Every structure is written in structure tokens, then in C-alpha cells.
Amino acid sequence: MPGAINPWPDMNRSLALTAEQVSSYWRDGFLIGVEVLSETELAQINADIDAIADPSHEGREFWYEYSSDLEKTGGIVHGIGGWRVRESLHDLLWHPVITSAFRQLLDAPPRLLFDQLFCKPALQSGAVSWHQDYSYWTYSQPMNHVTCWIALEDADLSNGCVQYIPGSHRWNVLLPRPSRLTSERNSLLGSLTDQQRAAFQPIAAEVRAGSVLFHHPLTIHGSLPNTSPKSRRGTTIHAMADGTRAVLDEPTVDGVPAWLLGGAGPFYPLVDEPAGPVLREPFFPTL
Ligand SMILES: O=C(O)CCC(=O)C(=O)O
């Protein structure tokens, strides 16, 4: 039976990013608008997301985290681990245009760190605070990560598209992490120098459904609330280079969920790897 996502959508198209796309990623810290998904693939993923809106949906036990309670999530339907819940979200991880871009941008074989769903229903709040992704993942070392954000619906400023601060990945800073889903969306600005504040010029990553964004783990990004009558759905794949280790001083670390550690417990780490265990199957598959 064919998978939900066609593994070879168009044999005539080049899978690779162009040299210009790769250099603009390194210059700006992000890349906007690589076309990936067909109408059919989008329809399948969106039908699956419609189905998971029901809190009693089949397979819900496979989420690492899931909440459609907008009161709790600040107006965003948020999930981690969708690849284990629906076939379309699973197959998306191995879309050849995405995996080959990961390989180019990491310059290494990619692995999944985790996937993450961010859906902003129409006319709801739903801001994502300014943040750098790596501030949440410092346990995964060395830092060689890249995120792909996939537009499942058209995204523009009015419905809260992702916004980036160009060049911020080259500021050579790791700023304190804010709570990601919060009304205090500008709290990170308090940690910037005057020079960084002057360079804080957001670019709105407006994209059509089916196109994707890539960003560097130190690029500052966030998004405004959705005040429009249009829903805004996006899902991300956070990838890391093969060989990335979980470097932790303690069996459990505040803010690091147990699933990320492949099953933390009193006997963690289960393997004798002084440098920290390599993040690998089954939770961190190769892409
Ligand atoms: O979907 C959003 O608005 C934010 C996404 C995000 O923070 C991320 O992809 O790291």
C-alpha cells in the first residue's frame, strides 16, 4: 500500500537546494519558501489534523505532548511527537526534498530530534515568543541542528506567520529561553544589547501552503497572534547531525522531558558512555 506521502513526488525535479539557497541560509540564518508538498499530500495531512482536534482521537497515547486546550497553550494547538500518531506526519519526516536539504545544511546525515505541531485557529490569540531553538536543547551536543517549518495552510502576517531576525544566528549569543507559548512574547528583548536591539528587524516569512522554511538553531524567531479569520497550521521537524549526544549531569534535567532522554529513570544513563549517550533509534531515527 502506498504511504500517505509520495516518496518521489516528481522525478524531474532536483531534490537539492541550490548553492544560492544554501548561502542565503548561512547569511540570514533562515531560508523561506522551498516548495515541497502537493495538494494531495496537504489534504491528507490536514484531514489527519482535523481528526486529532478531537481530544479522544485514536492513537493519542503516542503523543509525547499534546494539547488542544487553548486556555492552557495560549491559543495554539500544540503537539510533540505527531510522527508516532498519524502516518502522514510520520512520512513527512522522510520527504526527500526535506531530508536532502537537512543533509546539505547539516553537512552530515540527519536524525530527528523531535517534531512539533503549531496550529493557530482563526480569530484566536496564539503568539510564539521570540526565542532561539537551541536555548531549549543545550543538552544535545555538539550544536549542529536545523529546523524545517512546514506551512500546512497559507501563512502571512495577519494569521501569525513565523518571523525571523536576519543574521541573529551570527550574534554568537545564547539568550535565556522564554516560555515558548506566552503572552510575554517580547521578554527576550530585555536580554539584548543596544547594538542587537538596533539590528532587531523582523522579516515575515509569508508562505503558501505546502512550502517550507528552514532555520538555524540560533536564529531568533517567533510569531504574532492570529487575529484573522483564517486558520494557520504549521508543523516543524527539528533535525540534528548523526552522532549528537545527550550531555547531562543528572539523570533528569529540569525542562527536558523523559522521552527526549529515551527513557530517563533512576538508572539513566543505561549505557556506559562518559561523553553522554548518542541520540539514536528508536526515539531519534535517521532521516
Ligand atoms: O509556528 C510558529 O509560529 C513558531 C514555530 C517555531 O517556533 C519553530 O519552528 O521553532
Describe the structure.
This protein has 287 residues and is of the alpha+beta class. It has helices at 19-28, 39-52, 70-73, 87-92, 96-106, 194-198, and strands at 30-35, 65-67, 77-80, 110-120, 128-131, 140-141, 145-151, 162-164, 203-204, 211-215, 221-223, 232-241, 245-246. The chain has a seven-stranded antiparallel β-sheet with strand order 1-10-7-12-4-3-2. The chain has a four-stranded antiparallel β-sheet with strand order 5-11-8-9, with no helix packed on it. It binds 2-oxoglutaric acid (AKG).
In short:
GO terms for molecular function: 2-oxoglutarate-dependent dioxygenase activity; iron ion binding. By secondary structure, the chain is of the alpha+beta class.
Write a concise keyword list for the protein shown above.
287 residues; alpha+beta; Jelly Rolls; 2 domains; seven-stranded antiparallel sheet; four-stranded antiparallel sheet; 6 helices; 13 strands; 17% helix; binds 2-oxoglutaric acid; iron ion binding; 2-oxoglutarate-dependent dioxygenase activity; Phytyl_CoA_dOase-like; dioxygenase; Phytanoyl-CoA dioxygenase family protein
